[in-house]
What does this fold into?
Amino acid sequence: MSLFRKNNLFSNLAKIFSASVLAHAITLAFSPVFTRLYLPEAFGLLAFVLSVSNPFSSFSTFRLEQAVVLPKEKIEANTIANAVIFINTFFSILLFVFIIAAGNKLFEKNFNTLVFIPLIVLVSGFQMPLNSWLQREKKYSQIAHAKLIQTICIAVFSILAYWINHNLGLLIGYLMGWIVYSCYMYFQASKNDFKFHFSNFLNTVKSTLINYKEFPIYHVLPSVAVSFTLSIPVFYFNTCYSETEVGWFNFSRQLLLVPVSLITAAFSQVYYARVVELKNHRKKVFPEFVKLIQMLFAIALAMYLMIHFGGEFLFAIIFGTNWAESGTYASVLVISAALQLIVWPLNTLPVALGKIKYNSLFQIAHFLLTLSLYFIKNVKAIEFIYFVVIVDVIFYSIYFAFIIYQVKAHDKA
It folds into this structure.
């Protein structure tokens, strides 16, 4: 019998990881279709909306969905899940009112797309406690299926929506994919004893906020910092450059994040469990750490060489001649992606070694460092990308050194 069948942990990880790989493969397979249907401006609009909605989504639930898996009793877990849904819904309504009242002044350039922001926040936040409920019930197959359904729906609806609106089709497809995903998650959670109810919802929210106050206090700020760190360059591009350049930039960055995300998902969770095991048995972490670094470095180097020297050619061949400039952007951004590929799979290591607060501080520091990009004025798009890479090189070099220090300090203790 295989390792995956013997070990529930690895079996569950395999289900989630396999679904993630297949979902990314589906996205990549449809990408040449999208790039030939839609102009870069449409990708720029999608990038702008996600750069605004993602930070809001990171705190619309106060991170309380993470608490759903903690209680022993299902009744309490159900109460928490309902509280999260109420909080997210209330926040989304407030966001919608704010956008209608002040959005035209803040984002005059893209006001017609702002209505998508509270809708995306609403549906993405709605599924978070349901996802946690299915994790609690160990229904990993359903979670994996949901991810595949979402990816396929986004692809299909994005293609169909092209004939509705050439500029907003990608946004319509993205939103429809999330709606189908959230409905599927609710259906699966309901099949596994989750019950949605409105009775005493104010008391439900109040008790949850009191009993699990550490989640909004300690988890929200780092989560928002990470999300805003990814959004800041898009904000800058949207302010200073054309929608076409925004589309080129975000497309190249998102494409480079595919291998980074996959490898992070493959390594981080398993390595986290391994480090905890070594720590509990008072064994040294550094020998295996070095082997992992060597493996990640080899993968990162291969990705760097391929994209840095062949980015423009590959993008033009695969995605069409309109996207050759995006390949030029990617040939520079791959420096950041290569560093992320090495460091991101290790970001759970400080947590495993008990350095949670330091990890949070580093995320906030990265946000502040990225925020300094707003001091850069009157440069070409490609020049600004070099500044983005410089910021990432500084941060990830320091963070990597911090991780090495913590590993060595643990082994000496």
